[in-house]
Amino acid sequence: MSEQISQLVEQVRALPDRRARDTAIQLAQAILDLHSEALARLLALLPFEADSQLIERLADDPKIGGVLLLHDLHPLDLAARVRKALDSPTLRNAAQKIEMLSTEEGVVRVRVEHGHHVRAALEQLIWEAAPDARQVIVEGDDQPARSEFVPIQQLLAGSP
Amino acid sequence: MSYDISKDLYGALRGLRPTGRRRLCELCNLQLSEEHPHLLQVSNQEVLCACEACAVLFGHRSEHRRFLRIPRDARRLVGFTMSDAEWSALRLPIDLAFFVRRSSEDHPTAYYPSPAGYTESLLDLETWTDLVRRNAELAGIAPDVEALLVNRTHGRRDYLIAPIDQCYKLAGLIRRHWRGFSGGDQVRHEIARFFDALDTRAIAFKEITHA
């Protein structure tokens, strides 16, 4: 569904008829605004002391969390979501250390120490948790040192 | 944790937001510059964007008073005092609110921003009257177009007589930057920035009363 909407937006943007294009964009925007306002009101109705499990479940749900992000209503900010993504079990043993350096201006900086070809998977994980990031920069060394022994399991496992 | 909204979809939908939308005077359709006057339509309390000519023509015409010109700048209250006890006696759920006196009503109304915009709140009249008695400047708040704006969040103590459009702008800012369930750092940052900017441009109360 995600891809379909992206493609439709692109098609609308490419409409040669300016009036049709403007109308379609305004329609989409008005519907987004309607939902944005309704969602904000919905969240405002939840008691401030709502049990945190409910909040976490809402925020972690791929569909609900994604839509909350789209409308600037997600309870976790960019940094918190990136940190959570770095805790993913997928990354366990993928590097000696992976740490988040900063998320200033929406640019996510992450540092890898002694990574085992983890960069691509890491970037993907971060983008999935933070589609609102402007840029993802992975620093550090993501290659086993030449002199280092490469475990056979890792070679057999192929690319991460 | 991964979301069904991909980076592409996020970009595509966010990209639909109008950027640098060009505004027109809502009375004569003239193209407006970034900084333009606002008028308040008294009947429905709606804020309208206007060109300078319309703002002068409609905002200053006194017989009908369909439109009121909203002042451009806030006024700094010199020597204003409000104790913690007084604030809590107003019984507002958060530490940020604005108080407006509508020309159609004889008592002021309190509004506080929330993730859904702003909410009207009942005001303890006795406390308000006491406050005005001790701070004479409050009697000089222009009905409808100005408000006493109070910010006591995060240890700040901002008290200003602010143009009503700025109060709505603040409410909009809070709605837009409110993250999740308790606001978050971003909204705190935005509130601080808003008040710093408002204060920088504010004129001291005395200057305008003698003008």
Describe the structure.
The complex is a heterodimer of chains A (160) and B (211). By secondary structure, chain A is α+β, with helices and mostly antiparallel strands. Chain A has helices spanning 2-13, 18-45, 52-60, 62-70, 78-86, 119-129, 152-157; strands at residues 95-102, 107-115, 135-140. In chain A, strands 1-2-3 form a three-stranded mixed β-sheet, covered by helices on one side. In chain A, α6 (119-129) links the parallel β2 and β3. In chain A, α5 (78-86) crosses α6. Chain A is globular, with a radius of gyration of 20 Å. Chain B is globular, with a radius of gyration of 19 Å. In chain B, α5 (164-177) packs antiparallel against α6 (184-201). In chain B, a hairpin with a 4-residue loop joins β1 and β2. Chain B has helices at 7-14, 52-59, 84-89, 125-134, 164-177, 184-201, 205-210, and strands at 38-41, 46-49, 67-70, 75-76, 96-100, 109-114, 117-121, 146-151, 158-163, 203-204. Chain B is built from seven helices and ten strands. With 211 residues, chain B is α+β, with helices and mostly antiparallel strands. Chain B has two domains: 2-69; 75-209, no CATH class. Chain B has a seven-stranded mixed β-sheet. A three-stranded antiparallel β-sheet of chain B has the order 2-1-3. Chains A and B meet through α1, α2, α3, α4 and α5 of A and α1, α5 and α6 of B.
Topology, pairings included?
The complex is a heterodimer of chains A (160) and B (211).
Chain A: H1 2-13, H2 18-45, H3 52-60, H4 62-70, H5 78-86, E1 95-102, E2 107-115, H6 119-129, E3 135-140, H7 152-157
Parallel strand pairs in A: 2-3
Antiparallel strand pairs in A: 1-2
Helix pairs in contact in A: 5-6
Chain B: H1 7-14, E1 38-41, E2 46-49, H2 52-59, E3 67-70, E4 75-76, H3 84-89, E5 96-100, E6 109-114, E7 117-121, H4 125-134, E8 146-151, E9 158-163, H5 164-177, H6 184-201, E10 203-204, H7 205-210
Parallel strand pairs in B: 4-10
Antiparallel strand pairs in B: 1-2, 1-3, 4-9, 5-6, 5-8, 6-7, 8-9
